[in-house]
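Audit log entry. Action: structure prediction of a protein-small molecule complex. Ligand: pyridoxal-5'-phosphate. The ligand was supplied as SMILES and no pocket hint was given, so placement is left entirely to the predictor. Protonation state taken as written. Sequence taken verbatim from the request; no trimming, no tag removal. Recorded inputs:
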Amino acid sequence: MIKKNKYNIETQIVHGNLSHTSACNDLVDPIHMTSTFSFKNSKEGEEAFSDIGKSYVYTRISNPTTKQLNSKIALLEEGDTAVSTASGMSAIASIIMTFANPGDNFVTCNSVYGGTFALFNNNLKKFKIIPRFISPQNAGLPEKIEKLINNNTKLLFLETPSNPTLDAIDIKVWAKIAKKHKILLVVDNTFATPYLQKPLTLGADVVVHSATKYLCGHGDIIAGVIVSSKKIIDKINTEYLIHFGPCISPFNSWLILRGIKTLALRMEKHSDNALKIALWLSKHKDVKKVYYPGLKTHPSYEIAKKQMKKYSGVLSFEVYGGMDAGKKVLDNIKLCVLAVSLGDCETLIQHPPSMTHSSYLKEDRVSAGISDGLVRLSVGIENPDDIIDDLKEALSLLNS
Ligand SMILES: Cc1ncc(COP(=O)(O)O)c(C=O)c1O
């Protein structure tokens, strides 16, 4: 499935596969903002419906702007093809719903985005599709992972680095287990993006993204993308996406195409800023622990170093004083924006135990390593010294 392009990734990010859909030679392709496509006559209409992937019939099924986006992401992730969706959640749900039937299960780590955890742990119950969770501490131990696999296990699902404790999980280890058991390995590559990590080249079968985050990069849309072989993407399309219908708007596809052109520059800056801030935080007296895979003290530093180019822009830190102290940091920041989400140009700050991961039961939160005083930063592309000054002031008010 691995597809190589002769250009370096920075060039691919800008130029894509060099194909343009416009007849006017525009540098930037227009947005094909249409719900339907017309036919010259009934014969053409009939032919279009006899081979629906071949020509455009309806934007829920395919659209030229979205096709450009799909081909660019597939190129960057080195996959055969891709499909875009209305959100990262709909992308994740469509994969699970396509490959698992009632009575089936899948194995995943409990350190994942809170919405993903809620989908797995609550919503999928109705369909009798059961998640089998492993803790991040055990996610590198093949025997512990394999213990969770039985005849009804249809896939392995990983988020790496994971949310919000930034555990890097060894994709090659999980890929080997997936191959051995002839099941799929799905990797959520939202935090790293293909600029920093390419799961398909490490043995994963499917890559999924919340394109809301770094791929778009400007905090103005919600979208998801899935990259895989043609066979797998066709199956997800026909068995789930086309008729459940969470399709992406062509306008959002266009905004992602626009945002993605600066992906390499942004990921470099996000990563450098986050490392600087993580190092500063790790020396602060009010900070108990810093979670950033680029810190040598992080338990999964060696794994992150092996499979990532740099360490991306998200970090978490635990302050002394538990829940109240965590919330107090948020109440005293001035420059960082108190908001969930990540991957935007602005630095965003939030408190996972009371916000993104509040749907976890206390024991699940403890098992996933999400302590009461944990604060998550999605470091933006500002001057990092200004973020440090903002954090310095907010932390200085903790004991007031
Ligand atoms: C790692 C990860 N995957 C998936 C999602 C869900 O994406 P969306 O909000 O685009 O539905 C998120 C959202 O924060 C996320 O952080």
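Audit: result stored. The mean pLDDT is 95. The first helix runs from residue 9 to 15.
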